[in-house]
Specification:
Blueprint: H1 4-13, E1 21-32, E2 35-46, E3 50-54, H2 61-68, E4 76-81, E5 84-85, H3 91-97, E6 99-101, H4 114-123, H5 129-135, H6 138-157, H7 173-185, E7 191-195, H8 203-218, E8 222-226, H9 230-236, E9 239-244, E10 247-252, H10 254-259, H11 261-269
Parallel strand pairs: 3-8, 3-9, 6-7, 7-8
Antiparallel strand pairs: 1-2, 1-4, 4-5, 9-10
The structure holds adenosine-5'-triphosphate.
Residues 32, 35, 37, 55, 57-63 line the site of adenosine-5'-triphosphate.
């Protein structure tokens, strides 16, 4: 067996950047009554990676997101983020700690403008909150101005700057997905969890989504992605983990995972795999 210290020294000597774990899902089991959605799943996402979570429908992918973001407390196991335990934390604490997500079914404030939707995301980081807003405290006004500027920058960043005053529900579908990403980025996350961001997009939209995901990573954030579009996953991911019936059946680079017989079997065996 290789000595980890030797491995680290060898990597350093070779000039290979060392993998720094950011999100550690450590033997997590999540049970809902008789349904085991995750069974001793162990996944580590390193800082600066684009990491994809794939698997047939019902494999447990969204459950991973829900366990990481404090929606569910795991039945057993731990979740650590930047070395700190986050399983069992409240959702807002996880967000403040640097974890943001988007949802499979878009969740926007449909009657608010694009800009306002992003400003709501930025609010998660404000110190004055609702009390400051009601009392109209000076620093609340300053924060709101800052929030507005940040929201504009983020709308530009995701490519829908010219849509800032459009009502969310009137945006084309692909732009709504971009808006959700901008809103998640407004919390200034270290890691962004994207749940099926390409769902419902046409090929051109998928192409530019890939560019956006790379741009998010290049801006210094880590990306954890659930996606059914295998072309997209295999193109942009540094590493891929495959879940099947709540268990991790493979993990590695796209090239390695694609050749794995258990992965091929899981996908060929699933009637609705895409
Ligand atoms: N709150 C819950 N209560 C009961 N069962 C649940 C709950 N959440 C998830 N499950 C079950 O856990 C299993 C995994 O679901 P999950 O949504 O994580 O899968 P998924 O891989 O994200 O699927 P899809 O690709 O279809 O979104 C499924 O059998 C699902 O029915």
């Amino acid at each position: 067996m290789t000595n980890p210290t030797e491995t680290t020294a060898a990597a350093a000597a070779a000039g290979t950047p060392l993998a720094e774990p950011l999100l550690e899902i450590d033997n997590v089991t999540m049970q809902f009554g008789g349904v085991v959605a995750l069974k001793e799943a162990a996944i580590t996402v390193n800082t600066g990676e684009i990491f994809a979570l794939i698997g047939p429908n019902g494999a447990g992918k969204t459950t991973v997101f829900n366990v990481v973001t404090g929606v569910y407390r795991p039945t057993s196991g731990q979740v650590r983020f930047a070395g700190r335990r986050i399983d069992g934390m409240k959702r807002f604490q996880v967000t403040k700690g640097g974890v943001a997500r988007t949802f499979q079914n878009i969740r926007l404030f449909h009657n608010m403008s694009a800009l306002e939707n992003v400003m709501v995301g930025a609010d998660a980081h404000h110190r004055t909150g609702a009390v400051g807003a009601v009392l109209n405290l000076p620093w609340h006004r300053r924060e709101e101005r800052g929030g507005r500027e940040l929201a504009r920058e983020l709308l530009d960043f995701v490519g829908i700057g010219r849509r800032s005053s459009d009502t969310a529900k009137n945006l084309p579908y692909g732009d709504q997905r971009r808006l959700e990403i901008a809103r998640a980025l407004a919390t200034d996350p270290k890691i962004l969890l994207l749940d099926e961001p390409a769902a419902g997009m046409n090929p051109a939209e998928k192409e530019s989504l890939q560019d956006l995901i790379r741009k998010i990573r290049d801006s210094g954030r880590t990306v954890l992605l659930i996606e059914h579009d295998m072309g997209l996953v295999m193109h942009i991911s540094d590493r891929v983990a495959v879940l099947d019936f709540g268990q991790l059946i493979a993990e590695g680079t796209p090239a390695v995972v694609q050749r794995n017989p258990a992965v091929i079997e899981a996908y060929l065996g699933a009637s609705d795999a895409s």
